Amino acid sequence: MKDFSKRSFRSDEEFDELCFEFGLELDEITSEKDIISREQGDQKASEASDVVLYKIDVPANRYDLLCLEGLVRGLQVFKDKMEAPRYSRVNPLNGDPQRLIITGETASVRPHAVAAVLRNITFTPERYDSFIELQEKLHQNICRRRTLVAIGTHDLDTISGPFTYTAKAPDDIRFKPLNQNQEYSATQLMGFYKTDSHLRHYLHIIEDEPLYPVIYDSNGIVLSMPPIINGDHSKISVNTKNVFIECTATDLTKAKIVLDMIVTMFSEHCDQPFTVEEAEVVYPDGRMVTYPELAYRTETLSADYINSKVGINETAESIAQLLTRMCLKSEVTSDGAEIQVEIPPTRSDVIHACDIMEDAAMAYGFNNITRTTPRTYTVANQFPLNKLTELLRLDLATAGFTEALTFALCSQEDIADKLQKNLKDTKAVHISNPKTAEFQVARTTLLPGLLKTLAANRKMPLPLKLFEISDVVLRDESTDVGARNSRRLCAVYYNKTPGFEVIHGLLDRVMQLLEVKPGRNHGYYIQAAEDSTYFPGRCAEIFSHGKSIGRLGVLHPDVINSFELTMPCSALDIDIEPFL
Amino acid sequence: MADTGILESLLRLVDKVDGGIDSQVVASSLGVDHQVVVGAVKSVQALGEVIEAEQRSSKHWELTGEGQEIAEQGSHEARVFKAIPEEGLSQSQLMVESIEDVVRKKLQQVQMGHSSQLEEKEKNELKKRKLLTEVTVKSYWITKGSNFSTIITKQETELTPEMIASGSWKEKKFKPYNFDAMGVAPDSGHLHPLMKVRTQFRQIFLEMGFTEMPTNNFIESSFWNFDSLFQPQQHPARDQHDTFFLSDPAVAHDFPQDYLERVKKVHSEGGYGSQGYKYDWKIEEAQKNILRTHTTAVSARMLYKLAQQEEFTPVKYFSIDRVFRNETLDATHLAEFHQIEGVVADYGLTLGDLMGVLHQFFTKLGITKLRFKPAYNPYTEPSMEVFSYHKGLNKWVEVGNSGVFRPEMLLPMGLPEGVSVIAWGLSLERPTMIKYGINNIRELVGHKVNLQMVYDSPVCRLDS
Asked: Sorted alphabetically, which keywords does the UniProt record give (chain B) (predicted)?
C-alpha cells in the first residue's frame, strides 16, 4: 500500500525513524519528476514537479492511514501535536436528511447500501486527488476489488433525493456513464468496458446476474451502476460543495467501515470540521437505519493486563496517555484500578483488548521494552522421520552421491508421459489454479526432478551421481485432506555405461545403514519386475521384510530421451518410512 | 632426457673452464648440433643446482641458399665468363679479359666463420642481394652451480615400497614437488548448500530446547491453514492469485466439530472478548484443500492438540519445511520455499520474552544488533517485523516476522486463558543466498541448480 505525502521533513532520517516506530515503512523518497523520468524518460519529466514525495507502506488493516489527511492526523496525535478529533453525525441544517430507499430486487445481487453527506466541503486540487485516491485504495483492499463494497460519490447539488437503490435487467438500464458523451444500455456498457484496462476487472462481479444494481434520483437520473461505474450527470469536481456518498455491498460490516473511513477522513475539509450529515437508508421491509454509524465503543481493561502482556511496568495514568497518543482516548477510572479506552470509528482494526495492548506497546516503543528470557523449560526432540533423513543424507554423500533439491510441484507430463506412465495410475493430487504447467501437480516421485537436474548439468564431467531424500504427495482417502506425504530416497547414476551395479551397490549400502541384511524373509532382496519407466529386463522391485519398498534399474531409452539426456542412466527409488 | 654421455661430456667441459662457457662453444667442441646441447643443459638443470645457465643471444651471418651456391660455384658473372668458349664470342661483346670473383671470396670468408673480416657495408650489400642473412642464435652461458658435480645422479619422482624396504631412499635424490600446483579433487559426494543451512537451523533450535513439529503434510485444508488462525475468509491471501487450490482432492473432511463451531462463531460473531469480523462464515470455504501457504498451519494443529491434553504443559516447537505460494516469480521468489518457524507456549509470556528469544536465536546466527517494527498480521497481535543491521549495506534489513498469537486463535482451541503463544518465522532461502552470495534463487533451488556450485560450497557455520 502506498501513500504519497507532500511535505518536507526536518531530516529524512528523522522521518524514517518516526515511520519505523509507528509501524510504517518509508519505502522511497522521490518526486513526480523522478518517477516520470524513470518511467518515461528525462524529456517528459522536465515539466513535472520536483516537490519531495514520501512513498510510505501502511499496514493492511489501518485504513485510517491510507490518505494524507489520516496519516498526518495519526502522526500528529502520536507526536502529541494535536488531540484526536471527535467525529460526529449531525442533522441537516435545513430540511430532512437525504434518503436512500433499497428495493427488494437488490437482494439477489448486492443487498446492502449505506450513505452519508459531506456538507459544505472545500476541495483544492490536492484534496480532490486525495479523495479520489482514497476511494481507489479502499476499493482495492477492504472492498476486495469492489466485490464486497463499491463506493459512489456524487455532487449532491446536481441530483435530488430521495434516491432509490434497485436492480433491473441490463437492457432496462440506460444512462450516460462517467466521462462519456452518450447514453448506453447496461448491456452495451458491459461490452464497451471489456477492453477498458481498469474497469474490465470488475465486470465479472455482476456480468452473469439477471438483474444489475442501479441507483436513481427522484427524477430518474442514474447516480451509479455499482460496482462498475457512476453516472456522468452527478460527477464531482474540485468545485463540488456538497457530496453524497453511497456504498453498496455484499458485506454490510465492511460497507459501514468504508463509509466511516471516507467521512472521518474528509469531513476535515467541511465548514464544520469533523461533522458528517446523516442520511437515512430504508430497507425493503420498511426498516430505517441512519448512517454513517460513527460508533464509538468503550473497552475497559487493567494496567496489569497491558503490563503483563507487554512486559513493562507502567502506571494506569501513563498507559492511558500512551493509548491516547494512538487515537484511543483513554482515562483511568475513578478508583484508579482500570483504564477506559474509547475506540473511535477510524479504528476498525481494534476488535479485541490485545489490539489495544499492541497500541500501548507501540506508543511505549517496541525497542524500549526490556528483552527478557522466558523460563519455559522443555526438552527438545527431533521428528523421527527427519532425524532418519538427516542421518541418511550424510551417509549418501559419504557414498559419493551429490544431493539435489528439486521442486515439489511439477507438470503432469513430468510424472506421467515422460516416465511412460498413465497419469491416472499416479495417485497425484491436482492443482486447480496453476499459472503455468510447472505447477499442475505435486510430484509423486523424486525421479523427474533428478533427471531434470542431470539435464541442466550435462556439461559437468561424468559420471554424475545424484540423490535426494524428500517428500512426494499421494492421494490417500484415509486422511482428513485426502492426501499424504511420503518420504522417498531417490538416486541416479548417469554415465557412458548404465552402471546398474553402482546403483545396486548403493541400495546394498543403504540397507546396510538401515541394518537390513540381504535375505528373503526378514531381510531385503530384489526381484525382476516390469516397469515401463525402465529398460525391459533391467528393472527389479525391492522387497524389505516381505513388503515392496521401491524399484531400481536402468531407465528406458525413451525416458532418457524425454528428459533430453543422451547417456545411459540407472536409478534407485525407495520409500524410507518403513524403516522408522 | 638427453643421454647421459652428452650430459657428462658437457659437465666435464664446464668443469675445465673458468667462469663459464657458451653452449655454442660446447656444441662445436663436442661436434654436435647446438640443439642437442640445449636439451642437455635443460636436463642437467632439472637435477637441481648442478649448473647455472643464463640465456643469452648472439648474432652471426650465414649464407643463404643462393649464397652457398655462389660460394661453391662462383658468382653468376664469373660463371658466365667461364661459360664463354675459347673462340666463340667477338671481342667487342666481351668487355673484360679476365675477372676476379670477389663475391665468391667474400661469401667463402663468411662460410668459414670469418664474417668479422668483412665491412658492415659489404655484408649489408650481400644481404640486399639475398646472399647473406643475419641469424640470431639463443645460447646459454653455462657456469657451475652450488651443487656442481661431473657425475649424473638420476632423481627419483616418488618414494616406493621397495625403497622403504631396502633403505635405498637414503642414497636417492628426489625430484622437487611443484607446490604451486593444485591437488587432485577427491572423489566425493556433496550435500546441497540449502540443506546444509537447514541442518544448522535445526541444530540451533535443538540447542535451544525446541521440539520438531511433523510438517510432512504439504496438502492442508483452508480450515487449518487460515480459519483456525483467525484469518477471515475474504482475506487477500485466500485469493486464487496467492494460493494453490486443489481440484483433486478438492475438499477436506473430518474437522473436530465443536472446535469448528467455535472457530465459526469467533469469525462471524466474535466472543472471547473479541468483536469478531462479523461476516457470514462458510464451511465450504474452510473445506477447500490447498497447498499450505505457511507451516503455521501445522503449528495450529499442534496447539489444538496441546489444548486437548488433560493438563497444559509448556512447549517449544520448531519446523523447517516447504510452503507454497501462487505468486509472480522473479529472481528471488519461487512458487515454493522453506519456512523456518519457532513457537513457544507458556503461561505469562510477554512481548519482551518474544524479543528476548529472538535475540538469543539471532545471536546464534551471528546477528546481535536487532530492532523491531510494529507490523500487521491477521493471526498475531502484537506483530513485529525483525530488522538487523547489515554492515555491508549500511542499513537495517528485515530478517524475519514475529508476533503473539491472537486470543481469537488460541481460546477456541481450548488453551487456558493465561497461556500466551509467541512465534516467529523467516525463510531458509534468504539467509542461504546471503551466506553463499547467490543472486538468482534458481541457481540454488530446483533442477536448474549449478552442480559445480554444490560441489564447491563450503561448510556452513552460520555464526562466523
From this structure: Aminoacyl-tRNA synthetase, ATP-binding, Cytoplasm, Ligase, Magnesium, Metal-binding, Nucleotide-binding, Protein biosynthesis
- Shortest CB distance from A310 goes to which of B206, B221, B350? B350
How far, in Å, CA of A298 to CA of A336, rounded? 17
Query: pTM of the entire structure?
Result: 0.83
The tens-digit pLDDT sequence of chain A (580 residues) is 334 444 445 678 888 889 999 999 888 888 888 888 887 777 777 777 778 888 898 998 999 999 999 999 999 999 999 999 999 999 998 889 999 999 999 999 999 999 999 999 999 999 999 999 999 999 999 999 999 999 999 999 999 989 999 999 999 999 999 999 999 999 999 999 999 999 999 999 999 999 999 999 999 999 999 999 999 999 999 999 999 999 999 999 999 999 999 999 999 999 999 999 999 999 999 999 999 999 999 999 999 999 999 999 999 999 999 999 999 999 999 888 899 999 999 999 999 999 999 999 999 999 999 999 999 999 999 999 999 999 999 999 999 999 999 999 999 999 999 999 999 999 999 999 998 899 999 999 999 999 999 999 999 999 999 999 999 999 999 999 999 999 999 999 999 999 999 999 999 999 999 999 999 888 999 999 999 999 999 999 999 999 999 999 999 999 999 999 999 999 999 999 999 9
Cross-chain CB nearest to B248 (options A353, A399, A430): A430
Q: Do B447 and A394 touch (CB under 8 A)?
A: no
Q: In b/e form, how buried is each residue of A425-443, taking b as 16+ CB within 10 angstroms?
A: ebebbbbeebeeeebbbbb
Residues of A in contact with B314 (CB under 8 A): 376-378
The torsion angle over the Cα atoms of residues A188, A192, A194 and A195, rounded to 10 degrees, is 170
- Measured between beta carbons, which residues in chain B are less than 8 angstroms from residue A479? 217
Is the separation of the CB atoms in A427 and A473 below 8 Å? no
- What does the alpha-carbon distance between residue A44 and residue A42 come to, in Å, rounded to a whole number? 6
Distance from the Cα of A419 to chain B's closest Cα (Å) equals 17
CA-based nearest distance B349→chain A, Å: 7
Q: How far apart are CA A5 and CA A70, in angstroms?
A: 11
B219 vs B232: CA distance, rounded Å: 20
Cα-based torsion angle of the residue sequence B321, B326, B327, B328 in order, rounded to the nearest 10 degrees = 120
- What is the ipTM metric for this complex? 0.91
Of A366, A405, A433, nearest to B374 by CB-CB distance is A366
Mind telling me how many Å the CA of A174 is from chain B's nearest CA? 33
Cα dihedral across residues A262, A264, A270, A275: positive or negative: positive
Separation CA A454–CA A33 (nearest Å): 50
Helix (H) or strand (E) holding A505, with range, is helix A500-513
B446 Cα to chain A: minimum distance (Å) = 4
Q: Of B195, B350, B451, which has the smallest distance from its Cβ to A309's Cβ?
A: B350
